[in-house]
Amino acid sequence: MEYLLLIYEDATTPVECQTPSNEDGHSTVLDEYMAFTKEVESAGILLGANPLQPIETATTVRIRNGKTETVDGPFAETKENLAGYYLLNCQSQDEALTWAAKIPGAKWGSIEVRPIMNLT
Fold first, then answer.
1. Domain locations in the chain?
2. Which intervals hold domain YCII-related (predicted)?
3. What's the CATH superfamily of 2-115?
4. Residue among 111, 60, 57, 62 nearest 85 (CA)
């Protein structure tokens, strides 16, 4: 079954401030994400993954009274924002939860695990 692992981070704290850099000044967060990505690739369960641009780049679209409205930024006010995702093919929800706990962002944010609805 396919599971979408949604990575949420604190919108008020830049990720660079949430985790340290190594001696070279390179972000250890990026290293951790690259290692996790290689791990799920090696396990043969990775279907897709992408980080998202900062929340300031978002635009919300909605239709009200037949008119299309666009608003800069997210629709909902929240302390956390969606930062990226992994789409994994896991045997069970327990397996998906185990992988979610390994995502580096779980240390300072949260990971929402949602099964993909199969319509076919």
1. 2-115
2. 1-118
3. Dimeric alpha+beta barrel (3.30.70.1060)
4. 111
Under 8 Å between Cβ of 109 and 32: no
Strand partners, 3: 88, 115
Burial of 108 (0-12, 13-18, 19+ CB in 10 A): middle
User: Mean pLDDT score of the chain, rounded to an integer?
Assistant: 87
Helix runs in 19-92, H state only: 28-42
What 3-state DSSP class applies to 20?
Answer: coil
Residue 16's pLDDT is 53
User: How far apart, in whole angstroms, are the C-alpha atoms of residue 60 and residue 54?
Assistant: 14
pTM: 0.82
